[in-house]
Amino acid sequence: MPxxxxxxxxxxxxGTGRSPRAAxxxxxxxxxxxxxxxxxxxxxxxxxxxxxAIVTPGFVDVHTHYDGQATWDDRLVPSAWHGVTTVVMxxxxxxxxxxxxxxxEVLVELMEGVxxxxxxxxxxxLQWDWESFPEFLDALDRRARDVxxxxxxxxxxxxxxxxxxxxxxxxxxxxxxxxxxxxxxGEAAExxxxxxxxxxxxxxxxxxxxxxxxxxxxxxxxxxxxxxLGAVGKGVLQVVSDFAxxxxxxxxxxxxxxxxxxxxxxxxxxxxxxxxxxxxxxDAIAEANRRGLKVTAQVAARPVGVLLGLQATISPIGGSITxxxxxxxxxALRRDDVRAxxxxxxxxxxxxxxxDRVFRLSDPPEYEPAPDASLAAEAARTGTTPEALAYxxxxxxxxxxxLYVPFLNYADGDLEAAREMLVHPHAVLGLADGGAHVGTxxxxxxxxxxxxxxxxxxxxxxxxxxxxxxxxxxxxxxRMVGLLxxxxxxxxxxxxxxxxxxxxxxLRPPVxxxxxPAGGKRFVQQADGYLHTFxxxxxxxxxxxPTGALPGRLVRGSQAAPQGASR
Length: 567
Known about the structure:
Number of domains: 3
Shape: globular
CATH architecture of the largest domain: Alpha-Beta Barrel
Helix content: 25-40%
Low-confidence stretches: none
CATH class of the largest domain: Alpha Beta
Number of helices: 19
CATH topology of the largest domain: TIM Barrel
Distance between the termini: 27 Å
Mean pLDDT: 96
């Protein structure tokens, strides 16, 4: 009998970290049924010629914030445009379940503040046809999508649900309240939550400016909730922390894994003011693994940077009172007298960001810009001021011009710290934040950066092997969260796959759209070069265009490797 689909003559990068090889891949139903030498797979109802292209597993993005979008949208873009076939949401302790009807507004303000998702869009889009976390999963299960989704239980919502306003105000939980949170965590894991997440960083605030409810939760509270997962033997743990009091915080965070024997992942970035802390965190992670725990670093593919634009959350001329009063009135902003007034005001105020850390956003975007490409350096070369450059660049393209400020992972002016993290044996690609920070970043394109910048294009340092860049976001991410049925091209595994023109792969600049509910705005970013993307054996995108198929479903909990499948 012919196979449903055979992808022939491609260069297979199977996700395991093994070297690429020429092979044909057969798909039947939602599974891969053969990976063999070219010409050794039989006939097919449909044949795809992948000559000159690479064939990879679908990318598994373990750090997204599609908790709202997944309830109203059947296409989880921009992630789906970048070869992602499974997204894991509910990270950083923020989400929308469990929740009492009286607390809807509180959770919206928390998500709006922490993840920069417009509250108006959340109010319009969320239907709130759930209260408990299992009911939230049921709501997610009712919608088909272009990718699979998996959800985690957020500490912020859990704390508010059990403790009421005491939880929101960061008061200490009683023993009974910890026990109840642990019980609900176990219940959520039994219903299909992939894990439990929390935030311990002062960068996370509500839209009212309050700290996140989980910031100062005691070590005993975190360990108690983690034990709730340990008691049912299910679920992973995820945490983001500042590690300000390093020794105490490491003990608190890794203590969650000690208490529960469940896998734990920690967000790791280079912060300019504490440029060496990330290495200490990686050392602590390595030591935890030597002790027999499963602890992983989630690391980024590039700087966590900020996009500046007239319509973005942060405007490059927003430091001017005149600019704020005018808003997005291009006709006024183009007047010479208005320009002179705004530039004079900007020169009198400290810049929003140091001008030697602000860059043009090129096409395609350059995410490792050299110091001599900064606005400060360009202004010095051309005899103008950084403020004037920023003004004119922001007004370019009918006011859609963007500037880029590399932030985390760029303390040294290059990506050597990121490279060191990306090759760490206990690291996976994470932190893309798909669905979040919609007015300031668009890092859902991390998968494409891994293949373009790190494998093909980097000039300011070492590149990464193709097989490593693929494994970092397929088998390694899938294994970290317990999804053992995907992430590798092997017989028996799910047919989540990409066929990619690596030489033609190109990342487009982000653009601002108004396609969220209530006309909410967000940055999205597309790419050229994804020839075919399959979810569960069904093609979802062809040459970047949606096919109309929506095979993606809710993934309830960890998934065992198919019998006989090799990872």
